[in-house]
Amino acid sequence: MAFNPRMSIIPPGQQQSRNTHRKEQEADAFMLLKDREIVGCITDIGIPYTVADLAKPNPLQVQMIFEWFAELILNATRATVDPAMRAAAEDIAGDNGDVLFPSDTRNLMGFYVSLRKLLLECGITDFSFTDLYKPTHGRLVKIFSYLINFVRFRESQTPVIDEHFNEAEKTKERIENLYGENQDMEARVDELRQTRAQMETMVAEKSRRNENLKKRLLELRRNQEKVAARLEEAKAKKGELATQLEHKTADKMLLKQESAKLRPYVQQSAASLQASLTELSNTLSNDKSHIDALDRRARALQTSTDSFTVVSTDVASCIKLLDEIGAELQKEEEENARRNKQKDALLDRKTDVSDIERREAMLQRQLSKWLERTEKLREQANQKAQEAKKKMEELEKVHRQLKQERNEKGTETERRKVRIEQTEAKMRDLKEAIETEVHNAHDEYLKMEAHIKLYMTEMEQAIPFND
C-alpha cells in the first residue's frame, strides 16, 4: 500500500462525529437568533424579560416561559395534565397516590412530556430536566430560537392549519354524529329484536292455546254427536211407548164398554152370575195385573221422560257450550286476524330493520369514505409537510452553500486584505525607506555641495595667493 502523506490520522468515527457536530453547528448558526431578538419576542408575549435574565436564567421564570409556549401551541399546562396524572397515580398507588406522588411533581412530569414532544417537533432532540432546573445561556438561546422560529412558521401557515383543523373538527363531529346514530339504530334494532322475541313467544302461546281449543272442540263435537244419538233414541222410544199407552187406553175403554153391555145379562141367574163373576174377577185380576204393568210401564216412561228432560237440559247446556265455543272460535279467529296483523307489522318491522341495516351499511360506507378522505388529507398534509421539509432542507443546503461560499469569499477577502495590508505595509516601508534614502541623499548632496562650495572657496582663495 502506497503511503499517502495527506491521509488523516484521526479515527473515522471521531471524524464523522466532528462532521455531524459541524453540521449541527451550521444548522444552529442558521436557526439561532440574537439575544435582543429573543428577549423582544418574549417581552411581546407579555412576560417581562431582559438580556440579563437570558444571560443569567432563573429556573422559575424559564419554566413559566416554557409553560406559556406549551399553552400557546399545544394548549397544555400543568392544570390540563393534572386529571390524567392523578388518574395514573391512583392506578399505580391507589389511595396513596397523593402521598407517593405529590401533585407538583406529577404535574411537572406530565408537562415535561408534553414539552419534550413539542421540542422534538421543533428540532430539539436533547431536551432534559436540566434545561428546566439548571438552564444555561447557550441552551436557552438554542431552545428559544427554535421555539420562536417554529411559532413564526406556524403563524405563516395559519390558514392551512386552520383549514385542516376545521376539516378535522368537521370530520370528528360527523364521526360522532354517525356514531350516535349508529348507537340509536343498534338500540332500536335490539328493541325490535326483543319485541320480535316477545311476539314470537306470544304467537307460540296463542298457537298452543289454539291447538288445545281445537282438541277440546273436537271432543265436544264427539260428545254432542253421542248425546244427539242418545236423544234420538230416547225420542223414538218415547214415541213407541206413547203409542203403546194409547193402544192400551183404547183397549181399556173398549173393555169397559163391553162390560157395560154384558152387565144386564149377568144378573139373570146366580150360577151364571157366579160364573160371570169368577170370569169377571179373573178378567179383573188380569186387568189389574195389566194395569199394574201399565202403571209400572207409565212410571218407567215417566222416569225415561225425566231422564229425557235431564238429557234435554244437558243438550241445551251442550248447545250453550257450543255457542260459547263458537264465540271462543270467533275470538280465536279475531286473535288470528290480530296475529296476522302483528305478523304483517313484524314483517314491516323486519323490512324497517333491513332498511336500518342497509342504512347502517351505507353510513358505514360513508364513514369509511370519510376516513379515507381524512387519511388522504392526512397523507396530503404529510406530503406537503415532507415537501416543505424538503424545501427547507434544500433552502438549508442553499444556505449552507451560500454560507460556505460567503465563508470562502470571506476567507479569500481576508487573505486579499492581508495581502493588500502586507503590500501596503511593504509599500509604506519602501516609501519610508525611499524617503529616508532621498533625505539621506539630499543631506549628502547638501553636505557635498557645502564641501564643494567650501573647497571652491578655498581654491579661489588659494589661486590669487599663488599669483
UniProtKB/TrEMBL annotation:
One of its GO terms (molecular function) is protein-containing complex binding. Residues 161-251, 322-440 form a coiled coil. GO terms for cellular component: Ndc80 complex; nucleus. It is found in: Chromosome, Centromere, Kinetochore; Nucleus. GO terms for biological process: attachment of mitotic spindle microtubules to kinetochore; cell division; kinetochore organization; meiotic chromosome segregation; mitotic spindle organization. Residues 281-396 form the Nuf2 DHR10-like domain. Residues 28-169 form the Kinetochore protein Nuf2 N-terminal domain. Keywords: Cell cycle, Cell division, Centromere, Chromosome, Coiled coil, Kinetochore, Mitosis, Nucleus. Acts as a component of the essential kinetochore-associated NDC80 complex, which is required for chromosome segregation and spindle checkpoint activity. Belongs to the NUF2 family. PANTHER family: KINETOCHORE PROTEIN NUF2, MEMBRALIN/KINETOCHORE PROTEIN NUF2. This is Probable kinetochore protein NUF2. It comes from Cytospora leucostoma.
